[in-house]
Amino acid sequence: MKKRLQSLALLAGLAGLAYGLTLLGLERGHLQPAAAAALIAAAILSLWFRKTRRFLATLILGMAWFFASEQMQALGLQTLEGQGLWAAVFMLLPANWLLLLILPERKIASVGSVSFMAFAMMQFSIFSVLGPFWSLDMPPAQSIPGSDILTYGTHAVPAPAVLVLFLSAVPLFFREVLQPSFLHRTFVGLWLLLVMLYFQGASPYHGLSLAILSGIWISFSIVMESYQMSYMDELTEIPGRRALREDLQRCGPAFAAAMVDIDHFKKFNDTHGHDVGDDVLRLVASMLLKTDGAQAYRYGGEEFTLLFAGRELKAVREPLEAVREAIEKRTFVVRGSQRALKVTVSIGAAGRSGEHPDPMDVLKAADQALYKAKERGRNMVVLAGDRRRRSKTSNKEKKRPQRIKKK
Fold it and tell me: What is the model's pTM?
């Protein structure tokens, strides 16, 4: 939900920028180079990160904005030819976006991708030739019953194009709700920008300003998806180890870190399968996110890290005990059965000090404290230097094998 709200906030910002860009273009005539730069940047990013469907979407946008806008400016919107091209924009863009969502991700140079590019070029060529007949034979948008709100300032668009534009929202939003992804969010955002163009009215300048915003939006979605893959754990949807390492360097002079390990996690996988093990990881991650004053990270396997920025070690015992108890009291029901399982975690924590000045040293100390917690019976919190509750089977604390290496 948070990611969707961030995306909507960016779209709102782009919408506010559209009007300013339009005015800038009317005064300075810089919209065409800016639109070209935005779409070329989106195309390059798509090729670099091998996002074929977003590359094809950018190519279609380029055809629509530059081909249609140039022709519209030459022919004028009062002519049948100009109206036909304007209708083609609202007809072909959403139809091709839906087609791209259905098609699988392919290589850029594959037969399917090349065929799609040729098919898209053929569509705009046909509509440029048949534009006058399209506009002459088709009823205007205001002929749709109850369409007063849909025809604000855009009476040049025929009714079938308007219907395609607004009906295409159903599958686009449906896919995003059922299977949230940056790809689906990209096409939803492009649709919203196209609707904004519709309500702005028919103008080559509006088309070019929206081309700029569409290029920015596609580039943003690719960058954010790459960030997600690099810094976020796909299974638990919380930050991963790379994000932890970078955040450790920004913690300042006072911070504490805790290593969290799910007790007997291997038994969950061996007894109930990896799907149940994945559900346990998601459950624990969701509960660790609620730890007071801490940011949760997936360290690897069944281990997590909690980072307390600006806190001394002695101040983190209470929130760590609280989250440990919350996980212990939570009943986990195996999917497809009525069997309830209990999940517990062991936690070791350490803070920055003269003994551990380096952030990676703090993680190593927390890891050693975690080892002591597991040795003393699991399902407990042990702070670095804490000598309480020794194991009944050992009078000496064993040194844990070093697993965290200083980078």
Answer: 0.73
